[in-house]
Amino acid sequence: MKKNIVIAILIILVILVAGFFKFKWMLAKNEVADYKNATYQIDTSSITLVNGRAENETAPGSASKSITQYFGNGVEADFNGDGTNDVAFLLTQDSGGSGTFYYVALALKTASGGYRGVNSIFLGDRIAPQTTEFKDGAIIVNFAAHKAGEAMTARPSVGVSKYFRVQNNQLIEVKK
User: Fold this and answer.
1) Do the Cβ atoms of 102 and 90 come closer than 8 Å?
2) Contact 176, 163 (CB under 8 A)
């Protein structure tokens, strides 16, 4: 009986130690277990999400906050050809003004099973997202935007499709 307890404790310790070292290894490679907790490049800033949300000062010492959050519209597929499914999805960013800026973001799944966030690409301000899909090797984001010269307070009514691919583990926009 005591022998079984000792073996069980040893197994638990081995699992805990292995988990600890995998976690440290993932952190060293800028990987996380959940893509909603990864770091993404938005314009010139690195934004780290925690449970799909980040809140940062708009300027040092400022009371104004920039809120970046997971919007959804995700699609999973092997975008970079490494045999594992990655995730493309939309993020929103609100800096306290009247605009809500939308970005397509990419989290690559790594060989260790974690995710590494990469760059994001601006889609538009106050758009109406429709679908995100993967077809013929391209990530396609469909949304409604405003007509040229139209007031941003108007409801977006122009259908837009933007196409993206992964090249050298970075998201790039491509023309259809």
Assistant:
1) yes
2) yes
Regarding whether 120 and 134 lie in a shared domain, the answer is: yes
Domains in the chain, number: 2
Q: Residue 24 CB: number of other CB atoms within 10 A? A: 10
Summarize pLDDT for 8-67 with one digit per residue, the tens: 666 765 565 444 444 444 444 468 899 999 999 999 889 999 999 999 887 787 778 889
Residues 91 and 115 in one domain: yes
Give the mean model confidence (pLDDT) for residues 151-157: 87
Domain range spanning residue 45? 33-174
| Token pair of 69 as six digits | 């959050």
Assess contact for 133 and 140: CB atoms under 8 A.
Answer: yes
Whether the Cβ atoms of residue 14 and residue 98 lie closer than 8 Å to each other: no
Do 75 and 87 reside in the same domain of the chain? yes
User: Do residue 17 and residue 59 come from a single domain?
Assistant: no
Place of tokens 């690559």: 108
The distance of Cα 28 from the centroid of its chain, to the nearest Å, equals 19
Q: Let me know how many helices (H) and strands (E) the chain has, helices first.
A: 1, 11
And the tokens for 134?
Answer: 């993967």
